[in-house]
Amino acid sequence: MLTAVLARRRCDVCRLGMSLCPALLSSLDSPLPPFCCAQSPRLPSFLGSFRGLRQESCPRAGANTAKPLAGVRILDLTRVLAGPFATMNLGDLGAEVIKVEKPGSGDDTRSWGPPFIGMESVYFLSVNRNKKSIAVNMKNPKGAKIIKQLAAVSDVFVENYVPGKLAEMGLGYEDISKIAPHIVYCSITGYGQTGPKFQRPGYDSVAAAVSGLLHITGPEEGEPVRPGVAMTDLATGLYAYGAIMAALLQRHKTGKGMHMDCNLLSSQVACLTYIASNFLNCKTEPKRWGTAHASIVPYQAFKTKDGYIVVGAGNDQQFSTVCKILNLSQISSDSRYKNNKERVMNRKELIEVLSARFLEKETTEWLELFEGSGVPYGPINSMQQVFSDPQKKALAVPFRDRHAL
Question: What residues pair up with 260 in beta bridges, in sequence order?
């Protein structure tokens, strides 16, 4: 659970308030009482109390040895989604994540709502579990000094500022690596560190448009559609998460840190996979297919009497099975549909026949008929159905405990 800093009076330099987060104080094994950095001489001694206590050698690390990142400290200067998602995943693996927020308003997503739980945005809470939070005015030299001193005793530094902004405050990679040569410094940006667009701010929907994702998403012959969740942000967060893990392994071998750039544009273009390959190798410009697939037929949602079912036939045997379940065996022997290539070429006629058949029964009836068939299938669930699904509930049980079920 995120531990927030709460204070009636705030320091003019770091805005931590007259009391620093108790959980953060205890986690740093500091015996010092709460302080205000502008009014107390204790800040230098407080920061000095964990100088050299990089969590690799922290005596508290053994308390959580079951998790692979126990003993790793993350200094998290990210906001919104891609960065917080990456650091949350690191926190889930046992890392200590110290989230640094802007004084006053904090992370932008604290105001993204409704819904709210009390005063907290549910959006913010969804990507900030397992973190501790402090507020620091990094534009003030004393605030920047706090960040440097925290970086010196951290393993990973993650930020998602427009390139050059942190360097202006003396917090760029070159600055931090001088005092913390071990640091794994991950920059999450919209467009990378170079090129004509590198200083543009990056938001998911814009990057999804520029990268081509919106060009291929939406109904056939319809308008572009944004995916229901911010997939470009989430993909970038996962790339950053994996890159940080790899960099920690590399540092274990070399003893040296590194600077990595994970940007929205490159991440989403990488996720175009076969769509990009089709264009680069065959100059095939893709189109929008709704729930269908450009290269596999049938592989899409079909409307039933009361809802939708998604069915995918990835090979000829599966297609034959689908036809048997639908009582359309004659279709599977039709020369126009004998293999996937032919089915793709004759998509329109085949889908019309299958769609008409699916409309004859309710979704639950089709689910029963497909059960055990070996064909991939499933309903389009609402959120209530997702979280009441027995399979979802089973997967929510920790893996180590599943043998007891």
Answer: 186
- Of all helices (H) and strands (E), which one includes residue 302? strand 299-303
Average pLDDT over residues 354-378: 98
Rounded CA-CA distance 145/333 in Å is: 74
Dihedral of the CA atoms 290, 291, 292, 293 (nearest 10)? 100
How is residue 174 annotated by DSSP? H
- 190's tokens: 């919209």
On whether the pTM is more than 0.85, the answer is no
Q: Are 371 and 312 in contact (CB under 8 A)?
A: no
Sign of CA dihedral 62, 50, 181, 5: positive
**Overall size of the chain counted in residues:** 405
Question: Helices (H) and strands (E) in the chain — how many of each?
Answer: 18, 11
CA distance 378 to 396: 19
**Pair 251, 177: CB distance under 8 Å:** no
Assess whether the previous peptide bond of 114 is cis (omega < 30° from 0). yes
* Dihedrals phi, psi of 164, to nearest 5 degrees: 100, -25
> First vs last Cα of the chain: how many Å apart?
27
For residues 148 and 171, the answer to whether their CB atoms sit within 8 Å is yes
Model confidence band, residue 400 (pLDDT cutoffs 50, 70, 90): low
CA distance 224 to 204: 15
3-state secondary structure 91-149: HHCCCEEEEEECCCCCCHHHHCCCCEECCEEHHHHHCCCCEEEEECCCCCHHHHHHHHH
- Do residues 55 and 156 lie in contact, with contact meaning Cβ atoms separated by under 8 Å? no
DSSP three-state, residue 310: strand
State how beta strands 308-312 and 131-135 pair.
unpaired
CA distance 191 to 301: 35
Q: Which residues are catalytic?
A: 233
Give the mean model confidence (pLDDT) for residues 244-251. 98
